[in-house]
Amino acid sequence: MPSEFDLIQRYFLSDPRRDDVIEGIGDDGAVIRPPAGHDLVISVDTLIEGVHFPSGTQAASVGHKALAVNLSDLAAMGAEPAWATLSLALPQSDEAWLAGFSHGLRQLADRFYVSLIGGDLVRGPLAISIQVIGLLPHATAVCRHGARAGDFVFVTGSIGDAGLGLASMQGAWPLDGNGSVQYCLSRLNEPSPRVAAGVALRGLASAAIDVSDGLSADLKRMLAASGVGASIELTRIPLSAAARRLFGDSIDWDLVLTAGDDYELLFTVPATRADALCKRFDSLNLPITHIGYIEQQVGLRFMEDGVERTLELSAGYDHFAV
Amino acid sequence: MPSEFDLIQRYFLSDPRRDDVIEGIGDDGAVIRPPAGHDLVISVDTLIEGVHFPSGTQAASVGHKALAVNLSDLAAMGAEPAWATLSLALPQSDEAWLAGFSHGLRQLADRFYVSLIGGDLVRGPLAISIQVIGLLPHATAVCRHGARAGDFVFVTGSIGDAGLGLASMQGAWPLDGNGSVQYCLSRLNEPSPRVAAGVALRGLASAAIDVSDGLSADLKRMLAASGVGASIELTRIPLSAAARRLFGDSIDWDLVLTAGDDYELLFTVPATRADALCKRFDSLNLPITHIGYIEQQVGLRFMEDGVERTLELSAGYDHFAV
Prior knowledge:
7-stranded mixed sheet
């Protein structure tokens, strides 16, 4: 049976790809040399089987998602990812699982030029904790506390796909014969972190957050941090063609607003800079949609054709709620 | 019952103490600004109950130790710690445990001027994953691959205390009436990372590693990374007064050499720089002991009064060994 050391060698050791990695995996610590004039952004997220991903999720998807959720956090700050470390707890030495996991992780890491510089591998219930470090020029971080009354609220891509994917896995959503469910499952299991979009926000957006716990919960966090409120026009919330097909005539707003896991960026921009921002996104091949406005009055209000609509939304997931 | 957010607020949120923390806990990521001319050293270690610390260990000790093992890794690279993140999985919201844990963690963090800048709190079997980032001037990292034939082998402090502490907890070691067992238990549960010693190694030591898995296993790692061998004089290995009292007339070399968890620094220094290094340590209030020599011939040899002694040592702990 291979040792912990063998497993690390086999699945996670690679020559550092980046010039700024002075020492990679294999010593007490890794040594990196950040470029001058840059701030560093740090994010850490733990995924536990049965909590953050359904038991039975393919190993490659778990590897992908564990890194993707962290890259999404960096994107929401406007940072480009550079280095990552991995803490992996495994119930047993399952080499087929490790091969799939490391493949999924590496594919995404390579796509964004991220070096895996360290970590550890211990025996325990399946849990993956990844920490990423990203870079941005001094004082260009986009924080969640900068939204101001009058700012436009935007969101990238489409919302609700991952929730539909999860509902279909749980049998709560009728499966269809075409690729709509497939598309929603790929959005759930292999989310695309919006790294280029995050970079495009620098210097223009007033605040940003990624949609991990649901549009409603994440927007509320931004509003609370900024001390403001917002009105969102429901009909402007971008749904994918797949979601529209699955919903048919009745959109499940609770699912769209609370399901989370879409890893889109939700951001605000002062009205005077909205045009400049839209121009930047023209070259990105990622749609952005203006869904509402920041207001002085605290609270989050949903509008439909200009009339406020009261929605009784499910509570977001809380690990320690009763 | 408090939410995850409440728990983080209550136990882990503090004003960033360091000027180089631009954004601390509370956004998608933390933002830090490393000083110019410095490299960063990154280390991550996961502690699982029942594997890395005995079930029933006091919460404050767990908090202390989870950070200490990471600071020890940084020390072994010559780095001063600066920032840390925490991933904590808890079976339930146990506020007494959290209060103790965060107290132990904070006390050590404050002692070394470390800011907790982020992390997450999830529900799961008790596991603590801490990542630390440290600083050192460009190109001054002390790696484990630099040992060369003729170098002196040194170790800080004393070896075997933590192993004696663990053995006494497991009932394998007779308890004594004086403070010897108490001392060994404190060495096991609240190790002191050798941060100042690590800084003293910069520019003088040729290689270093911390003694986490046992003097024998860790020295072998250094030898393998450096492509050399070593001879160690058993009688020179520094034992504490407590260990000498507990051992009495027969020293258990297997325990001393394989028990680990002492978090001392094991390092090598070229003969020409040994005096300069000893002078640096004079001011540190931490003894260092010259225990042997690096040799061309690969392998690790133990000597007693100049004669090689064959020891059948226990294997080091491997998470995935059968």
